[in-house]
Amino acid sequence: MKITVLGSGGWGCALAKVLSDNKHHVTLWSKFQEELDKIENLGENIDRLPGIKLPKELVLTSDINKATKNSEIIVLAVPSSYIRTTCEIFKDLIDEKQIIVNVAKGIEDGTLMSLQEVINDVFPNNQVAVLSGPSHAEEVARGVPTSVVVGSKDEKIVKLIQNTFMNQNFRVYGSSDIIGIEMGGSLKNVIALAAGVSDGLGYGDNTKAALMTRGIAEISRLGIAMGADLATFNGLSGIGDLIVTCTSMHSRNRRAGILIGKGSTLSEALDEVKMVVEGVYSAKAALDLAHKYNVEMPIIEKVNKVLFEGADPGKAVDELMNRKKKFETHY
Questions:
Q1: How many CB atoms sit inside 10 A of residue 249's CB?
Q2: Which domains does the chain have, with CATH numbers?
Q3: Which residues contact 125 (CB under 8 A, 6 or more apart)?
Q4: Which of 221, 186, 194 is nearest to 107 (CA)?
Q5: Strand 146-151 vs strand 25-29: parallel, antiparallel, or unpaired?
Q6: What is the pTM of this model?
Q7: 3-class DSSP string for 66-107
Q8: Looking at residue 331, what is its pLDDT?
Q9: In the beta sheet, which residues pair with residue 114?
Q10: Averaged pLDDT score across all residues of the chain
Q11: Taking the C-alpha atoms of 274, 113, 184 and 318 in order, what is their torsion angle to the nearest 10 degrees?
Q12: In Å, what is the CA distance from 75 to each residue of 66, 196, 244?
């Protein structure tokens, strides 16, 4: 198949490699010609995936008129905060027969739209699928066995994406629960920030396990209120993605949280990580959604206070621990 990947960051390059290794004809687009020149000269994205040689067959371009022409599948691999602007750039260049696969994770600030809703807002006549799960680009690019899930309302689209992406090291499950997949992928980044803060404060495995467990409970409550299926949050795009993002140093959200726990400001942490920390962009939107759907999300609330109101991280943990007694399950 002819496939275009929009976005030449770590995830875009990793998926371009998977697709090219699967013998598809892949074009990799970036708005930054200097980034593409560097990739072409070195044969790798040295800033995001150092040591990973990219296939020579990859076509690199910054030309929007050439990037998506004749492609059957368009993979959106730009950061979540750039999804709408990227879609607008290609609004008149992508036709309604082309399938769009979103692999970014986030919620649009202000509108509170999921990314699939944003894409459909710009491309109302296109089939849109979402691909998510525990999948660090650094490991996918090295061929480390990985499993993800693709969601679409159309079973034929799910099977097409499975056939396109799957190989011996990259397994793709299917689902019809798009909103569940998107909420799990977006909100786990906020919980990962909290897990990083816990590490930065010097707390242990017990604390992180509690944050992860209560975090998925919060994500599930909101997701169900929005119409998602509980089973999705017990799967790859839910607890699976939460585990990998909260425990790995590949996770930019966890790394930023560690720095904040050690005393850095949000701005200092973002400067140190030098990559887009999606959880920061999703945190406010998650809290706004909690208010909209009248869902209790105490961890999300405390993360917002630490990030944007200068709350002391240690005190925030104390306040979570000393909340009113609750039952985990009902009698």
A1: 11
A2: 2-176 (3.40.50.720), 179-321 (1.10.1040.10)
A3: 96
A4: 186
A5: unpaired
A6: 0.95
A7: HHCCCCCEEEECCCHHHHHHHHHHCCCCCCCCCEEEECCCCE
A8: 72
A9: 107
A10: 97
A11: 70
A12: 15, 30, 23
Q: How many CB atoms lie within 10 A of CB 286?
A: 28
* CA 231 – CA 10 distance, rounded (Å): 29
pLDDT in tens, 28-69: 999 999 999 999 999 999 999 999 999 999 999 999 999 999
Q: Which residues pair with 149 in a beta bridge?
A: 132, 173
Contact 10, 49 (CB under 8 A): yes
The helix (H) or strand (E) run that includes residue 268 is helix 266-273
- Neighbour tally for 122: CB within 10 Å: 18
Those residues with Cβ within 8 angstroms of residue 23's Cβ, 6 or more apart along the chain or in another chain: none
Rounded to an integer, what distance in angstroms lies between the CA atom of residue 7 and that of residue 140? 16
Q: How far apart are CA 192 and CA 212, in angstroms?
A: 8
User: What sign for the dihedral angle of Cα 154, 121, 135, 240?
Assistant: negative
> Distance between CA atoms of 286 and 301, rounded to whole angstroms?
9
Measured CA to CA, the distance from residue 145 to residue 148 in angstroms comes to 10
Active site residue 188: yes
In angstroms, rounded to a whole number, what is the distance separating the alpha carbons of residues 165 and 15? 8
**What is the C-alpha to C-alpha distance for residues 74 and 95, in angstroms, rounded to an integer?**
11
Structure tokens that stand for 236 in this block: 């790859």
Catalytic residue among 17, 105, 188, 208: 188
